[in-house]
Automatic annotation (TrEMBL):
UniProt cross-references to InterPro entries, sorted A to Z: DNA_Rcmb_RecR (IPR000093), Rcmb_RecR (IPR023627), Rcmb_RecR_Znf (IPR015967), TOPRIM_dom (IPR006171), TOPRIM_RecR (IPR034137)
Zinc finger annotations (C4-type) as residue ranges: 58-73
Record carries keyword DNA repair: yes
Record keywords, A-Z: DNA damage, DNA recombination, DNA repair, Metal-binding, Zinc, Zinc-finger
GO molecular function per UniProt: DNA binding; zinc ion binding
This protein's encoding gene: recR
Superkingdom to which the source organism belongs: Bacteria
Protein's recorded name: Recombination protein RecR
Role played: May play a role in DNA repair. It seems to be involved in an RecBC-independent recombinational process of DNA repair. It may act with RecF and RecO.
GO terms for biological process, alphabetical: DNA recombination; DNA repair
The UniProt record lists the keyword DNA damage: yes
HAMAP family: RecR (MF_00017)
Family label: Belongs to the RecR family.
PANTHER family per the UniProt record, alphabetical: RECOMBINATION PROTEIN RECR (PTHR30446)
Length: 206
């Protein structure tokens, strides 16, 4: 693809690095931005820069946050006795969009995958176990919901967590398999995901 301007070429190259964006789409976006009022383009650039430099991760659940602790963990309206364990931040957003869950979350940052060299120590598992132990002194955690993707890696992680949590006397449940095996939470429709949360079942390690 030939460009009349090196500046346009550089912009297209950077935009096309985004997932799902090819060179042609990147060019259309770049030309669209070029036609916009300068203030609008500057506002977009500033928003992206601030997101990248100022975003934080909640010290409790590891969700994205504007402060040291996220709004969900700080909310007194959420049930702190129920924790939903998810793989990443996109899963939190997916479950929140169902409006069916009023507990709190714990973001693992991935799943156990020996093939990719990801073991339990690379995930936020220790902080989950510590969180359960610390909560016993104030607001005991009654239930942990394992809302991980229905993949081999997700099931391996769920099995590992269930054994660790049941050793501490915590009730462990798993979202109902309305989600297709091999499917990812972020691509599941809200009705199916909401039903899965509401009809969760006890997780068996036997």
């Amino acid at each position: 693809m030939n460009f009349p301007s090196k500046l346009i070429e550089d912009a297209v190259t950077e935009i096309s690095r985004l997932p799902g964006i090819g060179k042609k789409t990147a060019l259309r976006l770049a030309l669209h931005l070029l036609k916009q009022h300068e203030a609008n383009t500057e506002a977009l650039a500033l928003a992206i820069t601030r997101m990248r430099t100022e975003i934080q991760y909640c010290k409790t659940c590891h969700n994205i946050s504007d402060a040291e602790e996220c709004s969900i963990c700080m909310s007194h309206r959420r049930d702190g006795s129920v924790i939903c364990v998810v793989e990443d931040i996109r899963d939190v957003l997916a479950i929140e969009n169902t409006n069916q869950f009023q507990g709190k979350y714990h973001v693992l940052g991935g799943v156990i995958s020996p093939i990719q060299g990801i073991g339990p120590e690379e995930l936020k598992i220790d902080s989950l176990l510590s969180r359960v132990e610390e909560a016993a002194q104030s607001e005991p955690i009654k239930e942990v919901i394992l809302a991980l993707s229905a993949t081999m890696e997700g099931d391996t992680t769920s099995f590992y967590l269930a054994k660790k949590l049941k050793e501490k006397g915590i009730q462990v449940s798993s979202i109902a398999r309305g989600i297709p095996v091999g499917g990812e939470l972020e691509f599941t429709d809200e009705v199916t995901l909401g039903r899965s949360i509401m009809t969760r079942i006890n997780y068996s390690t036997e």
